[in-house]
Fold this sequence. Notes:
The complex is a heterodimer.
Chain A: E1 4-15, E2 18-29, E3 33-37, H1 44-51, E4 59-63, E5 70-73, H2 87-90, H3 99-108, H4 124-137, E6 142-146, H5 154-171, E7 174-179, H6 182-186, E8 191-195, E9 199-203, H7 205-210, H8 212-218, H9 221-233
Parallel strand pairs in A: 3-7, 3-8, 5-6, 6-7
Antiparallel strand pairs in A: 1-2, 1-4, 8-9
Helix pairs in contact in A: 3-4
Chain B: H1 4-29, H2 33-53, H3 57-77, H4 83-104, H5 112-117, H6 125-154, H7 156-161, H8 166-188, H9 193-204, H10 211-236, H11 240-256, H12 258-267
Amino acid sequence: MSEILAQAVGIGVSFGGRSVLQDVDFTLRRGEIVSLIGPNGAGKSTLVKVLLGLQRPERGRVVRPPDLKVGYVPQRLSVDPTLPLTVAGFLSLPRRRPEAERRRSLAEVGVPQLWDAQVHALSGGELQRVMLARAILRGSDLLVLDEPASSVDVAGQAELFELIGAVRNRRRCGVLLVSHDLHVVMAGADRVVCLNGHVCCTGSPEAVGLDPAFAALFGGSASALGIYHHRHDHHHDLGGGAEPQATGTGG
Amino acid sequence: MLDDFLVRALLAGVGVALVAGPLGCFVVWRRMAYLGDSLAHSALLGIAIGVLLDLDTTLAIVLAGLAFAVLLVGLQQQRQLATDTLLGLLAHSGLAIGLVVLSFAESLRVDLMGYLFGDVLAVRAADLVWIWGGGAVLLATLAALWRPLLLATLQEEMAQAEGLPVLALRFALTALLALTVALAMKVVGILLITSLLIVPAAAARPLARSPLAMALIAAGVGCLAVAGGIGGSWLADTPTGPSIVVAALLLFLATQLAPPLRRLARAAPTA
């Protein structure tokens, strides 16, 4: 098995007497894309903070390689329009990087033309890619993307996840996608961890999709998942599973 | 012939403007104009304590500003009160306690007007040493923290996740501002310090395409405002501190014309 990038064992956290996480186990290895999903208030961001060492858990322990480089892609960047900042300059934060490297990383995420653009004028999808470029420029071992698809339309989401998969293959990093949105999560993740204070269920996207705990947590929206799944993954949806071995031709 | 006191005033003003411009950019980017005001108000408490304990005034203001920075960043960690409430609380209690304390020191002559509106024409050589020596240290610190501070300004969570000490950075920025306020007090006074921070930065914005350019232009605008204000006050016999702020405002208004003019220039050949 490949190297463990972040592991949590038996994590317990509570805020002001209210338990947020109980007995959570979580492992992310190099080369893996893991989706962490759960409704709002499920403790997703707390678990991420614990994994990154930004929050000390009350119970349990966290294992991380000592010099793990983390690249964080937040949901959005609220750049004040009073802050003039080009994409080229943004890529040199928090440390100056050679221009050739910066241009290469922009090209890698498919937006080389944005080099001179002002960051506050970027669209949601462009900004996402630029932030991803900065994260890979750091030589990150672990990419953490918070609600990566919230500012992108559905077509853009499919592209974005294709891109994330390509980056993972090229850079051999681990990827953690954090989302409350089911549509996002299932595309291209190796493993899904469904969280609601505790780990409800975990496994491949297909297995989790069939898990009763998952259906209970997400109720009606779980059926919408099947449609998305069918269209973009070229796997058959839950209904199609009755047909004999209809594996997708695309991919 | 220029008089000595005018030269000293100019040197003091320029020294302060060189620091206030770049730091003021962060005040504008992080939307914390209130912080400048609050620091200035709390400085009055520093003055009062300095008078009572017979400390050097600048030193007392510096210490009060640092104490304010520690208190504010510490209090921000509790999440009961929002930052603007905290700032109002600290600033006005600082101001009020300062005035109360000063009333006890009635026997001492305290030039309150001088502190409120500044008295740049009364700058002594020792003040110049403070302003230029202190200013150089502040600018060097800001330069060293420049990129991490920018990242933390864009998205604190991202900076934190990537291992930057965001709390220390926030404290450092607050402390830098507190010290700048201490340096700027002589020049424009407590009531007008914030304008020296934000007006040059706001004036620089339409002319800049990078954070560094905006900081440098803001420093330049500040210097021009100081020169214009002191010159204007010399010619028209107006109060110097307010004249500097008026000059800065005029420069701000002038640079706001830059984008429309640029658009006109671009449109002209096709028209």
